[in-house]
Amino acid sequence: MSAFSLAGETSAPGRGLALLRATGPAGIASAAVLAAVVIAAVFGPLLAPYDPNLPNLSLAWVGPVGGHLLGYDFEGRDVASRLLAGAQTAMLGPLAVVTISVPAGTLLAVTAAWRRGASDAVISSGLNILFAFPGILLALLAAAVFGASLLAAVLALSAAYTPYVARVLRSAALKERSEPYVAALEVQGAPAASICLRHLIPNIAPLIAAQATILFGYAIVDLAAISYLGLGVQPPTANWGVMISENQAGLLEGYPLPALAPGVCIVIVVIAVNVLGERLFEQAQAARR
Amino acid sequence: MLLATLLVASFVIFAALYLAPGNAIAALSGGRSLPPGSEQVLEQRYHLNESFLAQYWYWLLNALHGNLGISITLRENVSTLIASRIWTTAGLVLYASVIILVLGIGLGIVSGLRRGALDTSTLVVTAVSASIPAFVAAIALILLFAVKLGWFPALGNGTGLVSNIRHFTLPAIALATASLAIVARVTRTAVRTESDREHVQTAVSRGIPARYVIWRHILRNAAIPITTITGITVASLIAVAAVVEVAFSLNGLGAYLVQAAETKDIAVVQGISLVLVTAFVVVNLLVDLLYAVLDPRVALGSGPG
Fold first, then answer.
1. For chain B, which terminus, N or C, has the lower number of CB atoms within 10 Å?
2. What gap in Å lies between CA A169 and CA A196, rounded to an integer?
């Protein structure tokens, strides 16, 4: 705890719980859905009742029977097991994107707001140029350069999302920079890095959390889309986007379940993330007024 | 600013693919061994023996003259290949934009003006549809309207205007689904905020006709946030169109870019990326110009950006 710690500041986990409680029933329900998917992501391969990657062509397109709740896919693999195993790449990829783009965007935003002047101008115009590349386009470029892989897609999306984080946080950091407490700390001789790390960034933390959640939702959709296009996660690895693509032929042949089920999973997770992100953002905005 | 952004973007596109691992001569010959002397011919034709900056300069000059090089896999002019596919993508994006403008803004205005059941159901429906990715919408639409009901074809471009419109309807809806919901929600909030403001309440209490209040006081002021979100979402369609084109087997630029990225057809990837980034930047510029029309207080090219 810092010597400058103010009354009313609680510990980080305590604040996180309070923040979640303030999001209301819809926010808590969304957090519960996400917790379930995270459990599937961590323990999915153990929870899966059958081997998600074991094909059996004689069972291709067979519908739900016995212990196989969702039936078999185009290669006769258990769809439910592949859904559970697919949660891993569905959550890990977006997590990596957020872990890279949010700190990078925060660093750029706080640096621009703190130094202002030339640094701000350079950072802002650099970000404006990055804005000219939509995330999916940058990911396609990365696939052409580095070859198709989840890593290439993650790096491309991280670069594409950084300006979005930086743009929102820069204006919040500028406002925070002009608060009297910052000037007071500067007069006391506190180093800039310590003021930023201990006071400025914690004060905009709710906004950072909201941004991270919103971008997590975008990343789920974009990464699934890239894997659907065949330029992200590579088969036979179970992934929701890959599953839609490899089972799409079943739609026209009367076996829609193996393609529909991963689509439903994506939509449910994205709804949960969006609802949570929206609530967190409203909380952050309300707290700033 | 527009030109500077495009120049840097073109440099990034060229540099990224220049740095791509792999030997240019091997890529050009498709891995076959070449007769002696032809390597030198290829080096000269593609300026391979010159510096990186010189190569970029030749590429940019050629691109400005409409020459984007030759596709390695199809052995055809990239510009010709792009020209034959650009209208599929443009038509798809335009069709989806019309759906977003009419339904998204319309729904947002109606639910922003009237509280009640319609407003609540709009909120719930848009919360769900904002979370449906284009390719998930695509498979749901194919299943329902092409396979079960048979109203629309599932795949392909079609020939002739009527057939084109029929073939493009499901892709356009798939492309519009999420954006439409986002535009509707932002429009609703903007209209609601404006109609709660004091001058609007005063105008209503003075008995000024509702139609006049809505046009003059509510929509005029709500137009700025509506334009912002519509511009952002319509611009983003340009990239997402690739996913929809693949889902519906449409013969567009995006689907071609995906195929070129798989086969590492560098000239095609560069050419299409350049066209898409240019379109993206131009749409954003048009939105900026629209601000000045909608709000005379916005002065172009000055003030804090």
1. C
2. 13
